[in-house]
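Q: We require from you a single protein entry containing the residue sequence and its fold in token form, and nothing else.
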Amino acid sequence: MKETVDMNRGSKKFCLNCESEVHATYCSICGQRFFLYKPNLGLLITEFFQTFFLLDLRVYRTIREILKKQGRFVKSYIDGRQVDFVGPVHFFILILGVYLLVFVSVGNLIYDSINDSFVQEDETKQKIEQLGTFLKINLNYLYFLLPLVFAMVMGLFIQKGRYNFAEKLIVSFYLIGIAILMNSGILLLALLNVKLFALRILIIIIPLPIALMQLKDEYGISDYFKSLAVVLLSYFIYAILVAGITILMMK
């Protein structure tokens, strides 16, 4: 028999967390759920599956909307349409985890293929192998620099005062996150032919600038080239930072 919790005082119900009167499923003051029974294994299992499938649905919905609406989705999120989607930082971390899993699994195979196909000198091959090992260990930290750089450079494209820095970070985490997801797919394609690894440049010159351009209410071809300049400059600065950090740490 389930063990009941005394949360009733007469005909009224009160929250066990803050002792406020409860009129619905959740407390309107602290947000804790009103429950009639003490926690048990069945409730924990139910909560686990509810949380897992809800998160999975929200991740799928977020990816679908970004791919479908691109910058318009991010704009609507900033404007307040948020409850059905995974938050930007959470989304970025989840996608980065997927990318790291793919990179760790196939990264060596790709670097070995690059070495065999394009590099002849043993010393150069050794340096590429060392670079691959370094990136495997530190890539999860280095990638967090890219949204920060992207948010700062965005000020060159977006009208001053339109978005604050936090909102620019939201844009960055979503757009860079979906770009990383696309990169994961390209890494897997590169297993078929290492030359397909070069497709990564298409992500930089097509979907990212278009998504950034769509943050404006009205845009034209000139806005595409401005947004492309922002993306290229962001990746250029990021590459310099990563190269500097790599050189310092590999000495």
Summary: DSSP finds nine helices and three strands in the chain.
